[in-house]
Each structure stands twice: as structure tokens, then as C-alpha cells.
Amino acid sequence: MFEQIIFYSFGTMLLLSALMVISVRNPVYAALFLVLAFFSTSAIWLLLRAEFLAIVLVLVYVGAVMVLFLFVVMMLDINLARLRAGFMRYLPAGALVALVLAASMVLVVGGEGFNEIRESGLAERGPAYSNTAELGEALFTAYLYPLEIAGAILLVAIIAAIALTQRAKRETKAQNPDAQVAVRRQDRVRLVKMSSERDSE
Amino acid sequence: MLEMIRQMLNATVGQIVPAAWQAQTVEVMLIVMQITIILTPLMLCVAYMVYAERKVIGSIQGRIGPNRVGAFGYRLAGLGQPIADALKLILKEIIIPTGSNKFLFVIAPILSMAPAVAAWAVIPFAADTVLADINAGLLYVLALTSLAVYGVIIAGWASNSKYAFLGAMRSAAQIVAYEIAMGFALVGVVVAAGSLNLGQIINAQSGSLLHWYWLPLLPFFVVYFISGVAETNRAPFDVAEGESEIVAGFHVEYSGMAFSLFFLAEYANIILISVLSAVLFLGGWLSPFEGVLPKSAFTLPVIGSVLGGGIHWLLLKTSLFIFVFLWLRATFPRYRYDQIMRLGWKVFIPITLVWLVVIATLAKLQITPWFN
Amino acid sequence: MSIDNLSLLLPEIALLTLACATLMVDIFSNDPKHGPGYWLAQLTLLVTAVLVLVTYTGDSQYAMAGMFVSDAMSGLLKFAICIISLFALFYSREYLLRHDIIKGEYFVLGLFAVLGMLVMVSANNLLTVYLGLELLSLSLYAMVAIHRDSSSASEAAIKYFVLGAIASGMLLYGISILYGVTGSLELGAVAQVLEGQSDYPTLAIFGLVFVLIGVAFKLGAVPFHMWLPDVYQGAPTAVTLFIGSAPKLAAFAMAIRLLVDGLGPLLPDWQQMLMILAVLSMATGNLIAIAQTNIKRMLAYSTIAHIGFLLLGLVAGNAGGYAGAMFYVITYALMSMGGFAMIILLGRKGAEADQLDDFSGLAERSPWLAFLMLILMFSMAGIPPFLGFWAKWFVLREVIQAGFVWIALLAVAFAIVGAFYYLRVVKLMYFDEPREPDEPQCSTPLRTVLSVNGLSLLLLGLSPGLLMSLCMAAFSP
């Protein structure tokens, strides 16, 4: 009962905030509603005793990804009128796609593969059970290969991002602290011994 | 103690709410009580940390610091100052600028305060003394500290002011940059301790002063603490406020209680980072005399409990770190923005990555005394 | 222990390690022509190719908890991918140097793309299929955008990225449905579950449709071909060449893995879908190509037509058909590479030779180059005795044997339509006046490699049995 109340309140919050993400006019609001949606999802995952996933969702998506998202959205001056211009025209097609996807999703969850899970319910495990450790073990044994490929994909993303944004020519006038610290007196000052000269003529 | 209170509550609550709800109601009430027990001293600490800051910095700069406000005609070395400050801030009007986004403007200080407080749920104060003894405690702390940035960003944006917005943008980039190094440092701790539970991390450090993680994880310790300073936007990483450049940064438009919430959040975060540093690298509530003095010394009546592990050691270690925070502020000039980024991305992250490999190797080879 | 048979992964491991080494070497070398990085990249491909040969056994072996499979098909395709990429990187460097947009990251990204292809070829799990595809696509997106100052390249990159992301989404959605239906991600297990059910649920078909759309997107089959002409035309020719060669082999492998290995029991269903895709692709590709004046765009539409032919091999639905499709895709990669290389060769800094007019009177300017182009065009048109003819013949033979005579007739009809625009290029070269009199400038290595590429089509065409038997062997149980 208690759990159900929590589930339904977070579920409602998730749905509402997800709806707001796509319907509010202000993109900053949309991003903030997305944050709220992530939070609600995370809470629901906690109810499923998936604490690692729940916390990592907050840590990665809310703590890092959405911050950068907000960063960009706040800087941009997005013209909403133009974004919304084609809304009515594309509505029928969009609605159709949404309908098909929703229908297939219902079918999937009703599929054979999920019967087992639905019937058995959540496995009850003691408080000592750490699904972080369990996940780690699965990732580094059975799923080692996909994990490594995912690592390679992230590396490619980094290389691509740097290759596409960094200009070869540096135009900033940044100081080089290493060089500044390493400088010696001889590099800067030259003491010259000169004999005094008298004006000729 | 806890059980006793629970029974008392059970008895009284049982008469008011239906039986089906009794267990949950009691549980909620107990948690609220525990939260109060943690938060009240914390808020007091925050108030007096401001006082300590002014005194310490005053002393470093050869001044006296606040020494006027006392009570009942006595000056008491200015101990009444925080109370007076708090009263002043509470009584002031909260001005909401025209053109600002009212809802976000009001909610921003709360968003900045909440994570700073919520993270305390998993901090172990002494053996088995923790509000929520969860498996993924360290992750929880990391997640919550990463949320602190929202208060700053939203405040900056909602204020509809150039200075505030600049401060928010600076802060966002800075926090995201240092979070990575911080995360890697924590991964090192996890590798060493083999657990994400803060209590177990402390237990893994038991043995003696040399078993604490400050020694094997020295690079992580340094990186974590400095990243912590950066995450809290404290000097010398205080470009987000940068009084001399962008007035006061993200909270330039705030006044009264709204402003003081930001203020409280900043200091609560400082204390949090200090306590975490103590827990992760200085053995939390473990006593430094452990392994030095003979076992019989800890069984002595009063002296034994002082010398043995306990909350007093945690508080002492935390105070040490807090002092370092203040000391830093009085000593170093502000970093320039590009220097901050360079330090975060090009120095800290490589250091942590390299040391992570070293630690993993040590742990794999089970090098004593730290890994066995 | 799940980390067994690690030696099977030797090519991939070597490739990944050396690709990282290439990145480092290139960063620390000061050569403005990025020589060290380039040569190390080529060495990497060579080493990988050799390791593929060394680890080749011919029968199916599994590694990494059954996520990785090494069989006859993967061996042949991996070797072909490495060798073709070797050529592609060579042509790319010539182009990048000529247009002064060379970057060390290009070669590193190329290597990672090859890694993605190898992963796809050896995937035995829906998860690895998808990850390999993403690794490949992400590298390609970046390569298309590598010339930042060109607005057409940026436009192409964005288009490619957005449509590619949609395709990946479709594929992933299909995969998730299949997982829902069968409760497994492993291809063999998926097939087993589907096999066991006398009438599999409609939902499996749903999953199949989405997976097929994803595959069709990546291959560029009509009606999911919209990105192809724009990307081929907009991207720097070097990148177009790269995209048009080895990745098609990987896409073919992906189709085989998903449709045959995983969804084999659904054969009657996807056969019909592929039939429609194949006919539409051949029709659209060949007809629209006629109207093009830009040769890169023309070759893009010709690609679509070739993909139609390739799908025809899958439609046959038996080992012979798959072998035919494999023969076709390898042939196609060789031809397309040669075609784009010719465009690279004729171009100058700041001026791409991507209009049909740029080829007029080539025979007068340089008879040898014109002859090579003639080989390429004849081969693409499917005129004997060039390799392209045998590829078409092989596929058609299997399709007819499988009983789809009318489709084979349609394919022949469209091939004849297609011959028109290939022969138009030949006519331009030999019978029109040159627009500029002087011989096109190119380095000796480029001319040599292109000659090898072109003549290989002729030589392999004269004795198609070798490659054909290799392809047959890849699919014989």
C-alpha cells in the first residue's frame, strides 16, 4: 500500500513532467522538466531496488548531461515560433507513429519473454545484497566484450569532438606557467660591463 | 536508545492512526527525529563557521575580526555576531527583480540548499551511527553533490541579470570539470576499500594511522580535496562569485533570506566536503592512537573512550579540513578561468587516471598493509 | 570463465591497440603531411589482415561468452575489409593532401571505423551488432564533417548523422522487441526460440520490420535511401570513397547476421519485404541516375541500384544466394572505390572533378586513365568479361534457381537501363572534345594503385572462379 502510493505519485510526476518537456514554450523550462522526469524515474527504480541504476541516472544525466544541456539552452536564443510552425501539419503523421509505437510497446510487454518476470515478481533479497557488485561482475565477465566496444565508441566520440572543434592555430594569449616558473635570471637580465665613455669632440 | 523511542512512539501513535499505517508512521517520525538531530548542530556549525572564518582570516591578516556583538552586556569575543547576522537577514525584504522568472528565482536557493543537506543522510558519525546505511552510499553522495550546481545555474538564469548569468555559466563549466576528477578519486577509494558503503570504507582503513587512505591514495586525497574546494566555489576557485569581476556572480540579485540560503548552502557544502575527506582519507571516526597504544589503553574508564575511536575524532578531523578551507581563502589569489580549466582537465584527470592504474595493481597484488 | 578463446579476437585487439598507438604517434609527430600517423595506420591494417589470415580456421568458433563468432564468412569479409580499407586510406591521403585538409585524426577515425566493421562482421549477439554499427557510424559521421570549412560537407554530415541516428533508433527498437519476444539477445538463441514456435507471434514480425528498416537505412535501399545521394555528393570525395567501399561489406554482414543467423525462421516474411526493397532500389537507383550531371551523385544512385541487386541475393534465401550477394558486395566495393578514386585523381586543389563534363575527352588527355575508367564503367554496367558481370550473373543464377524468375527478368531490365548512364561516361571520354587540353596531374603511386585497382576487375573477371569458390565456401555448412 505504502509502496503503491509512492509508485503512483512518482509515476504521475514522471508522466506529467515528460508531457511538459514537449509542451512548454520555454526551452529552459523543458530542460528543467526533463530533470524532474529523470528524478521521478530514478525514484521508481529505487522502488524496484535498483539503487545503482537509480543513483547513476541522477549522477550522470541530471548531474552532468543536463547541466551542459541547460548551459547550451540558456545561451541560445531559440526562435520558438519557427519551431512550432509545422506542428499542425505534421501532427497526423506524428500521431500515427506514436500510435504504432505505443501499440507495439503494449504488445512487447505482453510478450512471452516477460511472462516469467511478471509472474515471479521481484526477487526478494536481503539488505546485504549489493546490486552494484552484481552489475559490476556481469559487466566485466559476460558483457566484457560489449563493454570494451562501448569504451571504443566513447573514445571515438572524444577524438571526433576534438578533431571537429579544435583549431590548429592558437589565437589565445594564454600564459605558459611552466615556462614562467622555469625562467632563470640569465634569461631575462643581461649584465653588461661597459667602460665609461667620454664624449668625443 | 532507538528501540526505546520506537516503542514509546508505537504506544502513542497506535492510538491515533489506524493499525495498518502504524509501522510506517512511526518509521517516518523516527527518521524526522534523526534528521533533526543531525541538522540542528549542522546549522549551528554553519552559523559559527562564518564567525570562525572571520576570526581566522582576521588573525591571518593581523586583524581582530568581529568582537563587538555579545549578549547581556558582555562582548564574549563577538560570539553573538552570527545570531545578529541571521536576524538581520531574516528581517530583510526579499526583492524579486522585474523581468526575472519569479518561480525559478524563488526556488533556486532551495535547490542549492537541499542537496547540501540531503547528502548528510549517509555520513557515518561513529560505528553504526548513520541515518541511512545504504550500499551505494558513496555514489549517493557523489550524485547529490553534483546537483548543487542547479541552484547556481537556475539562480543565474532566473535573475535576468548579466552578472548573475556570467557567474552561473562559469560555475556550471567549473563544477562539471571538477566532478570528473572528483569521481575518479572516489573510484580509487572504492577500489581500495572494495565497497561503496561509507561505514565499510572506514572499517577498511582500520589498523593504524598508516592504514588510513591518505597514504596509499595520496594523489586522490589531494585531488579530491582541491576538487572539493572548486566544487564549493570557494577561493581560490571562486570565479562564480568573483566580487571584483562580476560583483557577486550568481546571487547578485538576491537579498534577505533567499541570499542567506545560498550562504548557508555554501558553508554546509564546505562542511560536507570536509567530513567526506575525513571519512574517505583520514579514517573517519577511527582513532589515530589505534595500533600505536596497547589494546589495554582503550579499556581504561574515561581516557579509554577518549583515546578510542568515536565521533570526536571525526569532528576533529573535519575541523582540520574546514580550517584548511579558510586558510586557503586567506592565502591564495583567485585563479583565472582558463587556469581553472587547465588544472581540472589537464592536471587532475590525468593524475587520477594514472594513480587509478597503480592502485588497481596494488589491490590486485594485495600489497600489505593496505590491501589484503 | 567467460573470457575464453581470446586468441580469436587477435585481429580486433591488435587493431584497437595499434589505432590508439596511431593516435599518439600522430599527435606527437610534427610532420605537416601526417606521414608517421598515416604509415602506422596502413601498417595496422596490414597487421590486422595478416592476423585475420592467421586466426582463420574455417569453422564456427565462439568467444567472449558467445558474443563473438569467427567463421568462414567472417574470415573472408574481414580480410576483404582490411585490404579495401588499405586502398581507401591511400586514396584518402592523396585527396586530403591535394586539397590541403589533411588531419591525423582522419586515419585514426578510419581505423576505428574498420574496427566497428570487424565487430559487426563477427557479431553473434544483437548487442554487439548494434555496438559495432554505432562504432562504425560515429567514425563515419566525423569523417564526413572533417573538412570544417566546407558548408556542403557540414550539411552532409548533419544529414547523415540525423538520419543515421533515426536508423539506429529503429534498429534498436526492433532489437528490443525481439528481446521482448524471445527473451534473449544471442542470435542463435533468438533463432532457436522462433524455430520452436510453430506460429510465432505477430510481434516477432513487428521486430523484424524495425530491424529490417534499420538494415535498409544503413545499406541505402529504397525507400530508406534519402541520405545517400546528399552524403555522397556533399562529403569530401575521399570520405565518399571510404563510405562507399568497406562499410557496405559490414552492412552486408550485418544483414546476414540479423536476418539469417537470428531471424532465419522468419525467412518467408523477410523474403517478401526484401523483394520489394530490391525491386524499388533497382528501379529508383537506375532511373534517377540517368538524370544526374554530378558524377558523385550519379554514382550514389548507382550505389542504390547495386544495393538492390545485392538484396536480390538475399531474397534467394539459400546458401548460394548469400554467397552471390557476398561476391556482389566485394565486387561493388572494388568498383566504387575505383570510380571515386578517378574523381580524386582528376580533381585539383579547390576544384573537384565531380561533373560529368570533367570527363569529356579524357581519352585524348590521358588514354591510360580513360581506359581504366572504361574498365570501371563496363564492370559496373555488368559487361563481360569484367568482374561486375560475374557478380550480376552469380546473383541472377541463384535467384532463378530459387524460382523467382520474374524478379530476375526485372533485374536484367533495370541493369540494361543502368548501362545507359555508365556508357554515357565512356562516350564522353572517347568521343567528346576535352575542356582542357593538358594531361591531369597525378603522382606515380596514385596512378599505380589506381591501375592495380582497375586491372584487378579485369583479371578477377577473367578468372572469377577463385573468388566465387571462396564465397561459396563461406556459406557451405
Descriptive account of the structure:
The complex is a heterotrimer of chains A (201), B (372) and C (477). Chain A has 201 residues and is mainly α. Chain A has helices at residues 2-23, 27-47, 51-75, 80-84, 87-109, 112-120, 131-140, 144-165, 177-182, 185-188. Chain A contains ten helices and no strands. Chain B is globular, with a radius of gyration of 22 Å. Chain B contains 13 helices and no strands. Chain C is mainly alpha-helical and 477 residues long. Chain C has a two-stranded antiparallel ribbon. In chain C, helix 14 runs antiparallel to helix 16. Chain C starts with 9 loop residues before the first helix and ends with a helix. Chains in contact: A-B, A-C. Chains A and C meet through helix 5, helix 6 and helix 8 of A and helix 1, helix 4, helix 5, helix 6 and helix 8 of C. Chain A: One of its GO terms (molecular function) is NADH dehydrogenase (ubiquinone) activity. Chain A: Composed of 13 different subunits. Subunits NuoA, H, J, K, L, M, N constitute the membrane sector of the complex.
Give the secondary structure arrangement, pairings included.
The complex is a heterotrimer of chains A (201), B (372) and C (477).
Chain A: H1 2-23, H2 27-47, H3 51-75, H4 80-84, H5 87-109, H6 112-120, H7 131-140, H8 144-165, H9 177-182, H10 185-188
Chain B: H1 2-16, H2 19-60, H3 81-91, H4 102-118, H5 137-158, H6 162-193, H7 198-204, H8 218-231, H9 243-246, H10 256-281, H11 303-307, H12 311-331, H13 337-365
Helix pairs in contact in B: 1-2, 2-3, 2-10, 2-12, 3-10, 4-5, 4-10, 5-6, 6-7, 6-8, 6-13, 8-10, 8-13, 10-12
Chain C: H1 10-28, H2 35-55, E1 61-63, E2 68-70, H3 72-98, H4 104-121, H5 126-144, H6 151-182, H7 187-196, H8 202-219, H9 227-234, H10 237-244, H11 246-262, H12 267-290, H13 295-316, H14 319-346, H15 362-365, H16 367-381, H17 387-401, H18 405-431, H19 444-462, H20 465-475
